[in-house]
Design a protein that fits this description.
By secondary structure, the chain is an alpha+beta fold. It is built from 5 helices and 19 strands.
Length: 269
């Protein structure tokens, strides 16, 4: 695989961000379908199977389908969208985050050429970055680690952009230093980090403490990225709020009138 395209970028916003990427002539950015926010008129858009990096060029239909199939297993779309600058001067394109959170720019060259991330965190990358499967070999991690047996492995020597919920923190772990986290808060780790799960050790806390039966353990050396608001947690809260509001329909919950309905004020009119 050749060198990834070198692109410039600027991130805008705070809680709901988007990234604007500058492309010189011939440079290409690869993204998930539907992530594009706006682009200059001289940028050419194309839809391709797989990750858009032509790694299976010359391998025929079987190689193309293999790449596309891997993307489906990692939770990504069957297709990728490529955006290439066909103008002689620099042009820009922007990609928006799918839900409140932060966009994380990662230069894979700074982390040994690869990172492993949760399945839905990939937003876009420079052409030349490969998106592949990272299998969890430990049964406990697969069942109880919050990400299942399949995660994403991003490989290459250029920029990739991830997205995660809430506030993002990056931690550097020393050799044998261990960090315990909620299983849903993991965004990405470098290849040397040992990822495992551990029973909370206290049945009462596991049942009534709200933290679940297992915690994820990350042991260094390496770099880890954590999110404060996993999308699954946010979705659960929204669902629960909707369910409560549905059960309380007509009770005036959340209004200045309290439990006095409009029908009580105006009678039967």
């Amino acid at each position: 695989m050749g060198r990834a395209h070198e692109v410039d970028y600027q991130i805008f916003g705070d809680d709901i961000q988007f990234v604007e990427i500058g492309l010189d002539y011939g440079e290409t950015i690869v993204a998930e379908p539907g992530a594009m926010m706006y682009m200059d008129s001289n940028i050419e858009m194309d839809t391709v199977f797989g990750d858009g990096n032509n790694q299976n060029a010359g391998k025929g239909l079987k190689g193309i389908l293999a790449t596309a199939g891997k993307r489906v297993l990692t939770g990504e779309n069957l297709f990728s969208t490529t955006f290439t600058n066909r103008a002689n001067d620099k042009k820009v394109i922007a990609f928006a985050a799918p839900y409140p959170g932060k966009i994380i720019p990662v230069n894979l060259l700074d982390y040994g050429g690869q990172i492993i991330c949760q399945r839905d965190s990939y937003l876009c990358s420079a052409k030349g970055i490969s998106v592949n499967i990272a299998f969890q070999k430990k049964i406990g991690v697969g069942f109880f680690g919050g990400e299942g047996f399949i995660m994403q492995r991003l490989s290459g020597d250029g920029l990739a952009f991830l997205h995660a919920g809430g506030t993002i923190i990056k931690k550097e772990l020393n050799p044998n230093e261990m960090l315990k986290i909620d299983t849903g808060c993991l965004v990405a780790i470098t290849g040397q980090v040992n990822y495992d799960v551990q029973f909370t050790g206290n049945v009462k806390s596991a049942i009534f403490g709200g933290e679940g039966l297992f915690l994820a353990t990350l042991r260094g050396p390496g770099t880890v990225w954590l999110q404060s608001l996993p999308f699954s947690r946010m979705a659960d809260r929204i669902f629960e709020a909707g369910r409560r509001n549905g059960n309380d329909a007509g009770k005036g919950e959340g209004s200045l009138l309290g439990n006095i309905g409009l029908g009580n004020i105006f009678g039967n009119d």
